[in-house]
Amino acid sequence: MVDLNFDELRRIRAEEPGRLAAVYASRTRRPIIQGDGKLFIVAADHPARGALGVRDDEMAMADRYDLLTRLATALECPGVDGVLGTPDIIDDLALLGCLEGKVVVGSMNRGGLRGASFEMDDRYTAYDVAGMSRDGLDFAKNLIRINLVDSGTANTLEATARAVNQAAEAGLPIMLEPFISNWSNGVIKNDLSTEAVIKSVAVASGLGNSSAFTWMKLPVVPDMEKVMASTTLPTLLLGGDPAEGEEEKLFANWAKALELPGVRGLVVGRSLLYPATGDVVSAIDAAAALVHPNK
Q1: Can you tell me the distance from the alpha carbon of 164 to that of 129, in angstroms, rounded to the nearest whole number?
Q2: E strand segments, 31-132
């Protein structure tokens, strides 16, 4: 994996906090859509919601230096188009020089902390549209868990509609990640049935006063053809956290879904940054080959 100068990162963080503005102002940007029209984005916004686990290790993502090294390693792989994260992670990557020529996606609502009694009231506690515009980010992302028996959902839907409005006004593409969710023994579980995903797409698609800049970020589920028939919006597939030994099946499902009309690529995090084999580069390259087979 890559070798990063964390001593310098810590020094800048303490002594030159204003350096970030200059770094963002001079960052080389790229068109979101280019070449084959597909995107492969590496995601790392889980920690800000208190979700640090990967498979059986509940603290797998706790070491920030290890996480940044894995992200920087992934971003050096030629098939990776960009990264998704909260401001703390994106700012670190910017100061480390890892965002040049990449699509940078800001994660917005991280207030629905994992396991909290208020988890469904998923507040917008990370990026806002103004902050992403300030830093020259390329894309916005938010999570929309829809729980029909939890009133916190109403606040999340209303806040998301406002975010869609602001993104459309700013001309900032925004990807919505909807789920139908339910409480189960004090834990939120997402319903990954085909019907539930289609219903979540219907609700999310109608949020805001314009859909001009709206994208979908959806799980791969059975009968994915029916899911993609439920929307005309450009769609990226999310990865999930497969159990050990399930990676081959996951890749096969991605490959099949990537062939569907409207599917524009993958947004994957833990399963590739922390592969069971420990080989980040091989895992990233294998996924990139599905998204960009001719690259």
Answers
A1: 9
A2: 39-44, 82-85, 103-107
End-to-end CA distance of the chain: 22
Topology of domain 6-291 in CATH is TIM Barrel (3.20.20)
Taking residue 121's Cβ as centre, other Cβ atoms within 10 Å add up to 18
pLDDT tens-digit readout, 163-211 = 999 999 999 999 999 999 999 999 999 999 999 999 999 999 999 999 9
Angle at alpha carbon of residue 179, lines to 178 and 183, rounded to 5°: 145
Tell me the per-residue pLDDT of 113-145, one tens digit each, with 9 for 90 and over.
999 999 999 999 999 999 999 999 999 999 999
109: number of Cβ within 10 Å: 26
C-alpha to C-alpha distances, 225 to 15, 178, 195, 266, nearest whole angstrom:
53, 17, 12, 16
Closest CA to 166 of 229, 214, 118: 214
Which of 125, 205, 143, 133 has the alpha carbon at shortest distance from 166? Answer: 133
Query: At residue 222, what are phi and psi to the nearest 5 degrees?
Result: -60, 150
Residue 146 carries which side chain, given as an amino acid letter? Answer: I
Q: What does each C-alpha distance from 67 to 85, 139, 269, 272 come to in angstroms?
A: 12, 22, 11, 12
Per-domain residue ranges for the chain?
Answer: 6-291
The residue count for the chain: 295
CA distance 40 to 168: 23
Label residue 208 left, alpha or beta by phi (over 0 means left) and psi (-120 to 50 means alpha).
Answer: left
